[in-house]
Design a protein that fits this description.
The protein is of the alpha/beta class. It has a single domain (about 1-325), classed as Alpha-Beta Barrel (TIM Barrel), CATH 3.20.20. The chain has 10 helices and 14 strands. The chain has helices at about 20-25, 55-70, 130-150, 160-165, 180-200, 225-235, 265-270, 280-290, 300-305, 310-315, and strands at about 1-5, 35-40, 75-80, 100, 110, 115-120, 125, 150-155, 205-210, 240-245, 250, 255, 270-275, 295-300. The strands form 4 sheets. The protein has an 8-stranded parallel β-sheet with strand order 1-14-13-10-9-8-3-2. Helix 6 links the parallel strand 9 (about 205-210) and strand 10. The longest helix has 19 residues, at about 180-200. The structure holds flavin mononucleotide (FMN). Flavin mononucleotide binds next to strand 2 and helix 9.
Length: about 350
């Protein structure tokens, strides 16, 4: 039962505070793997309110007590490191510059469920010479994660953020060695993964992929080939784990069905395989017992149930999650105030 990476937009000034330590320690248990929310690798990596960073000394120091709190309870803690690329606006960028990406194509503005329009600024295409500097930011961020005490890092190569912008052919329109063929489109991702491995060791580096996702205008015409290409390359590098996201499921009788589309990836990957996307206790147990995956990452259920592994063990009822507080800035409400199971009542 893995805690999936969950952005909660409560790290004011990009710093995780005491409430963040409380949130993660509530969810820590002996031997349980927690993956921390997307954490920026540099000044240009940010695009959403109150998300943490790990590129400054101050940020590393701020993470230390959070990691300690998880370790005190025997948990294993990885930090997900990301760069949002073109999913940003001038407001988030140093000196109001354009966000950077593999392209200069802007993300199409999207009307969200609540009627607000999500609009990102027009990006600036990175030059071939600049790419190694961004790779280096990931390398330093991986080093900083270890300095902060994390057991490892998860490189965010999913959901339409910078690395995936390079990987997928709906976005990547480059004609240099970072665009065109599958090999070229995956080059940036693999350079980042290799840099992190060279810096902190392959046994501390996991990777998140979502070949089937189409978030932020980012999709691929051949997701199976893309996923397998990455997996074969990750095998050569000795990547510790691959965390993969199921494609979006269709609703049957009001319940979203898990597509179970990841088996060929699992079979091809030499390391530990993690799946995520709509799992509950029963489906997670089934997926593990049938050899579909090694581990299951839970997002929304773990967010709402600090003692999720215990509840699963006891087959106890779960707290419902409240979507309205997923990304609100309150340090308590919808964050650390989800109740624990009253064990005396079980
Ligand atoms: C509030 C929220 C924040 C999320 N933040 C991240 C994130 O920072 N990084 C990431 O890779 N996925 C993120 N996700 C996706 C989850 O990790 C997970 O894949 C998704 O919620 C599906 O799993 P679930 O059905 O168990 O919730 C987020 C999801 C939610 C609901």
């Amino acid at each position: 039962v893995v805690h999936a990476p969950l952005t909660r937009s409560r790290c004011y000034n990009n710093l995780p505070g005491e409430h963040v330590a409380l949130y993660y320690s509530q969810r820590a248990s002996k031997g349980g793997l927690l993956i921390a929310e997307s954490t920026g690798v540099s000044e240009t990596a940010q695009g959403y309110p109150n998300t943490p960073g790990i590129w400054t000394k101050e940020q590393v120091e701020a993470w230390k007590p959070v990691v300690e709190a998880v370790h005190r309870k025997g948990g294993v803690f990885f930090c997900q490191i990301w760069h949002v690329g073109r999913a940003s606006t001038y407001d988030y960028q140093p000196s109001g510059q354009a966000p950077i990406s593999c392209t200069d194509k802007q993300i199409t503005p999207e009307v969200l469920e609540d009627g607000t329009v999500e609009e990102f600024s027009a990006p600036r295409r990175l030059t071939e010479d600049e790419n190694p500097h961004i790779v280096n930011d990931f390398r330093l961020a991986a080093r900083n994660c270890i300095e902060a005490g994390f057991d490892g890092v998860e490189i965010h190569c999913a959901f339409g953020y910078l690395i995936e912008q390079f990987m997928k052919d709906s976005v990547n329109d480059r004609t240099d060695k970072y665009g065109g063929s599958m090999e070229n489109r995956c080059r940036f991702a693999l350079e980042v993964i290799k840099a992190a491995i060279d810096e902190i060791g392959a046994d501390r580096v996991g990777v998140r992929l979502s070949p089937y996702s189409n978030c932020l205008d980012c999709w691929d015409s051949d997701p199976d080939a893309l996923g397998l290409y990455m997996i074969h390359a990750m095998n050569k590098l000795g990547v510790l784990y691959c965390s993969m996201v199921e494609p979006e499921g269709v609703k049957v009788d009001g319940k979203v069905q898990i597509p179970y589309k990841l088996l060929h990836f699992r079979k091809a990957f030499a390391g530990t395989f993690i799946v995520a996307g709509g799992y509950n206790r029963e489906e997670g147990n089934k997926a593990v017992s049938e050899g579909y995956t090694d581990l299951v990452a839970y997002g929304k259920w773990f967010l709402a149930n600090p003692d999720l592994p215990k509840r699963f063990e006891l087959n106890a009822p779960l707290n419902k999650y409240d979507r309205s507080t997923f990304y609100t800035p309150d340090p308590v409400v919808g964050y650390t105030d989800y109740p624990f199971l009253d064990l005396s009542s079980v």
